[in-house]
Design brief:
alpha+beta; Alpha-Beta Plaits; 19 strands; about 375 residues; 3 domains
Length: about 375
């Protein structure tokens, strides 16, 4: 059995007595630091600090870099300007998802890709197989540490650790700054997020990660900043209906089935998987990812079967009792005939079929922030 990988911050986890680590895609990662419920609430109302250094970072450079990424990803890379990031997907020829990722345009022919930790090796091999002459692909994952500050107090916390806070306040969603000064260290700072809250991502040299982590926790203590593990990261992204690869996305689930059609530009020209997706759209989707809420008492969990009048119609991809809404909710990939709002279905929970219904998503949406934190609508 191979030894689990560790981020540059691993040794700092032991400073938290309640921290608990798990094997996550081959990485020894904290599922919690002080408790999932507490960490979830902190991000929704104050701020949380995430170590997501297990994510992969690739450098794609060369005169044909933009054209290469245009062919390998579903979104329109040509729309990007320098300093802009874009959510996108990599598909296989059948239209299934190899991975979802962020594409950062650093300059005309220089890009950074941020990919899922468990897919880093697979993605690198897949992209390498299609790499044209004149374009270079380099894996920088072990050189880069990635920290994220998320929550309504994120901006003012970061303002304390940079000499140019106005640059952060002026940073628009899905834009980034090169060479920003954070805690006296150089960083790429972006504003994307995976929690449904405002927040920032800090890409720093791996050797600087511990210093930045400690200084951020100190700077944010008065505002309730706490370290957050993978458990709350999952419940936060779930409430905001943000997909997790391996659950809402896979090599057999297309971005159209997952409700991510906005990030698939079928009119931009050829890309891997385009023909299959055009055909799928023309024929009509046979499966759709929907939100469900339990009517009977029970919590839907990943892989639980879902039933309709015609028998089994799909399965739950993610489910939990929402920490924010206190409702038993799930995402399920089901027969498209049952995807209409308020459609009654059943979820098999430990051998018993319990009633549920299809409900709107996202379950949680951030509105105008006040000093008390986010509001739900």
């Amino acid at each position: 059995m191979s030894e689990l990988l560790r981020t540059p911050l691993y040794d700092l986890y032991r400073e938290f007595p309640d921290a608990r680590c798990i094997d996550f895609g081959g990485w020894d990662m904290p599922v919690q630091f002080s408790g999932i419920q507490r960490e979830h609430e902190a991000v929704r109302t104050k701020a949380g600090l995430f170590d997501v250094s297990h994510m992969g970072e690739f450098a794609v450079e060369g005169p044909g870099a933009a054209a290469f990424l245009q062919r390998m990803t579903t979104n329109d890379v040509d729309r990007l300007v320098n300093g802009q990031a874009q959510y996108s997907l990599i598909c296989n020829p059948d239209g299934g998802v190899v991975d979802d990722l962020l594409v950062y345009k650093r300059a005309g022919d220089r890009f950074m890709l941020v990919v899922n930790a468990s897919n880093t090796g697979k993605d690198f091999e897949w992209l390498g197989k299609h790499l044209p002459d004149g374009v270079t692909l380099n894996d920088r994952s072990r050189e880069v540490a990635l920290l994220a500050v998320q929550g309504p107090h994120a901006e003012r916390i970061l303002a304390r650790v940079t000499p140019e806070p106005e640059l952060l306040s002026g940073l628009q969603p899905f834009r980034f700054l090169e060479g920003a000064d954070i805690c006296g260290r150089k960083a790429i700072v972006s504003r994307t997020g995976y929690t449904g809250e405002d927040g920032f991502e800090l890409y720093v040299d791996a050797s600087d990660a511990a210093t930045v982590w400690r200084e951020l926790l100190g700077a944010g203590e008065a505002d309730g900043l706490v370290p957050v593990g993978l458990g709350a990261r999952d419940t936060l992204r779930f409430e905001a209906r943000l997909p997790l690869y391996g659950q809402e996305l896979s090599d057999t689930i297309s971005p159209l089935e997952a409700g991510l059609g906005a990030f698939v530009k079928l009119d931009k020209g050829d890309f891997v998987g385009r023909e299959a997706l055009i055909r799928q759209k023309a024929e009509g989707l046979k499966r759709k990812l929907v939100g469900i809420e339990m009517a009977d008492r029970g919590i839907p969990r990943a892989l639980y079967p879902v039933y309709g009048a015609d028998g089994r119609i799909g399965e739950v991809t993610t489910g939990t009792q929402s920490p924010t809404l206190k409702r038993n909710l799930g995402l399920a990939l089901i027969d498209a005939r049952y995807a209409g709002l308020d459609t009654e279905i059943e979820v098999d929970i430990r051998g018993k079929r319990l009633k549920a219904r299809v409900v709107p998503t996202p379950f949680y949406r951030r509105t105008k922030q006040d000093e008390g934190g986010g509001k739900v609508r």
